[in-house]
Write a structure and sequence with these properties.
It holds the Pfam family S4. This is RNA-binding S4 domain protein. The chain has about 260 residues and is α+β, with helices and mostly antiparallel strands. The chain folds into three domains: about 80 residues, Ribosomal Protein S8, Chain: A, domain 1, CATH 3.30.1370; about 80 residues, RRM (RNA recognition motif) domain (Alpha-Beta Plaits), CATH 3.30.70.330; about 90 residues, Structural Genomics Hypothetical 15.5 Kd Protein In mrcA-pckA Intergenic Region, Chain A (Roll). The chain contains seven helices and 15 strands. The strands form four sheets. Strands 10-15-14-13-11-12 form a six-stranded antiparallel beta sheet. Strands 5-6-4-9 form a four-stranded antiparallel beta sheet. Strand 14 and strand 15 form a beta hairpin. The longest helix has 20 residues.
Length: about 260
């Protein structure tokens, strides 16, 4: 039996620790019963830590799959080394949501909310890709038929849902608005305030309420410093990347360049 403590004792994040325990349960089943096991959909932050754990086991193999090349949310497939990965059944499927009218007023959260409203947990849903009048969603195969049968509305709009092949997924191009700013410091609350046009106190509160993530990790300390390349997300407000830290002005402020996702 695996000594789980030795793999999770260094993890401070309680939610991440729970993900790790579930992963180790699956690893043990793969090793003892030679089964193929799949995780729920994981964020890039969770994936990074779970891969570090999996890499300590020589007896097993694994790969991550998210439905398309640039997928953010992925599931890990864990199996014995003697198996051919191409023979393993995919644990994920893709659906396409369409309407007779364009999805002008609907956003990512509307589609996510509609699926969650069916009683499905977030960890069973992968990427949600929205463009024009089509929304493509990656989900676990176990819930595919249920969603196909029961998802009939998104917001107040009637929709039709069909299954598509993973190869049919079309990830929209990411469009960014470039923003150049001079900030007092590289503190997270200062960058969030400037980039999302919030007061410093509003940014402070959002971070403390755990509505801010940096590189997919929830950060609740406004004083944390950001670095070049960091992806900052505010729930309900969007995302931005710290594209460049360009130096200090004569007045002592820091010049930065942000790319804000449109």
């Amino acid at each position: 039996m695996l000594n789980r403590d030795q793999y999770i004792e260094h993890i401070q994040d309680e939610k991440l620790k729970l993900v790790a325990v579930k992963l180790l349960d699956k690893v043990e089943m793969v090793m003892r019963k030679h089964e193929v096991k799949y995780t729920n959909f994981l964020t890039p932050y969770e994936i990074k830590h779970m891969l570090a754990i999996l890499n300590t086991f020589e007896e097993i193999c694994f790969f991550a799959i998210g439905g398309h090349e640039d997928a953010e949310r992925k599931t890990l497939v864990i199996f014995q080394a003697y198996l051919d990965p191409s023979d393993i059944e995919s644990p994920i499927a893709a659906i396409e949501i369409q309407s007779s009218t364009r999805f002008n007023q609907l956003m990512h959260r509307d589609f996510l909310g509609a699926i969650l409203g069916l009683g499905i947990k977030r960890e069973k849903i992968g990427d949600i890709l929205l463009q024009d009048d089509i929304c493509q969603v990656v989900i676990t195969t176990e819930l595919r038929d249920y969603v196909l049968l029961n998802l009939v509305k998104v917001g107040n709009m009637s929709v039709k849902v069909r299954e598509i092949e993973l190869e049919e997924i079309k990830a929209p191009d990411k469009v960014y608005k470039e923003i150049r700013l001079n900030v007092a410091s590289l503190r997270l609350d200062a960058i969030v305030s400037a980039g999302f046009k919030l007061s410093r106190s509003e940014a402070h509160v959002l971070i403390q309420k755990q509505r801010c993530s940096v590189n997919w990790e929830v950060i609740d300390k406004p004083s944390n410093e950001v670095s070049c390349g960091d992806l900052i997300s505010i729930r309900g407000k969007g995302r931005m990347i710290v594209e460049n830290i360009e130096g200090t002005t004569r007045s002592g402020r820091t010049s930065i360049k942000l790319h804000k996702l449109i």
